[in-house]
Amino acid sequence: MKISTYNVNGVNGRLPVLLRWLKEAKPDVVCLQELKAPNEKFPQKEIAAAGYNAIWNGQKSWNGVAILTKDLEIIEVARTLPGEEDDVQSRYLEALVEDIIVGCLYLPNGNPAPGPKFDYKMRWFKRLTEHASSLLDLETPVVLAGDYNVMPTELDVYKPEKYKNDALFMPEVRTAYSNLLSQGWTDALRELFPGEEVYTFWDYFRNAYGRNAGLRLDHFLLSPQLRDQLVTAGVDKEVRGWEKTSDHAPVWIELANKGNFSFK
């Protein structure tokens, strides 16, 4: 099973890029972030024509997440994180796909920090951590994929000194990510490429992509049942170089089996 995560940065404005990538990469499951579209504007027909089922949780102008599958049933489980009833931002979607729970997430950016946006980010991170702990209590394998808006280590940012006061790299955020991992999750890309420079995001400014001045913001966390099922992973970096593309590139993993997991 090939599972991808992609911050598309506007699903309608980047639709030709998304459809081209789906055709070329052929992922079985896709987690999308930053749809920037209300539910009624999600391009369901075009995505269906490309061969994908979809569920989505949209929001006008901002945020928004979706899960796509190719020839696989999606059973929606949740579309919010528990813990903050008045939170109306569309940042989480959870589904059951082929006996795997797939959580698609778009963690808040948090800038400027300190400030209300950073406080919201840390509360959201706490809610995610609590929910992730409850998912680990299940017998069902889990993948938590998406744009976490955190560079976990200095290896994940081209110039660590430049980001020391950025909400994506502040000590509190990196500690929160580390605490999440300590529950028993596996960071898939770091599991396979422990000492390598791997980026998933390149800013639009200052020729960041051309200079490979990147950040690793998009992560796959795997529950213990899936660690030994992880075969390979990668970043479709070339997509970042396409015309009118997102500032993120698609990231993907491959698991050993396409379905019928039995981990009991």
Automatic annotation (TrEMBL):
Superkingdom of this entry's organism?
Bacteria
> What Gene Ontology biological process does one annotation of this record name?
DNA repair
MF terms from GO for this chain are: DNA binding; double-stranded DNA 3'-5' DNA exonuclease activity; endonuclease activity; metal ion binding
Instruction: Summarize where Mg(2+) binds, as residue positions.
Output: 7, 34, 147, 149, 247-248
UniProt cofactor(s) = Mn(2+); Mg(2+)
The site (Transition state stabilizer) lies at 149
Q: Which Gene3D superfamilies match?
A: Endonuclease/exonuclease/phosphatase
Q: Where is this site: Important for catalytic activity?
A: 218
**Family designation:** Belongs to the DNA repair enzymes AP/ExoA family.
NCBIfam families given for it?
Answer: exoDNase_III, xth
**Identification of the protein by name:** Exodeoxyribonuclease III
User: Which species does the entry assign this protein to?
Assistant: Antarcticibacterium flavum
